[in-house]
Write a structure and sequence with these properties.
mainly alpha, two-stranded antiparallel ribbon, 61% helix
Length: 85
């Protein structure tokens, strides 16, 4: 499975929409709040991972380390836009 930061963005906005559902009450609302917290924590780690990958690439470029000139899949862009597939 190929996931990108665009996919993460879509999941975060979908969860935000669920939290905005005014029909959610009581236990259902509490469950969505807990789910949102879990999604946010995982999302934070994914973003930190992407930042680390980018820093490593920049460091390798700065110090002339020979590497394949590609971008990690999660950071890929196609046609100037983030991949959202």
């Amino acid at each position: 499975m190929k996931n990108t930061l665009g996919d993460l963005n879509n999941h975060l906005f979908a969860q935000l929409e669920k939290l905005g559902d005014e029909d959610l009450k009581g236990d259902e609302l509490e469950a969505e709040i807990k789910r949102s917290g879990a999604i946010a924590k995982v999302g934070e780690q994914i973003i930190k991972n992407g930042e680390l990958q980018l820093k490593a690439m920049q460091h390798m470029d700065e110090y002339g380390y020979e590497r394949k000139k590609t971008v990690p899949e999660m950071l890929e862009v196609r046609g100037g836009e983030m991949i959202n597939e």
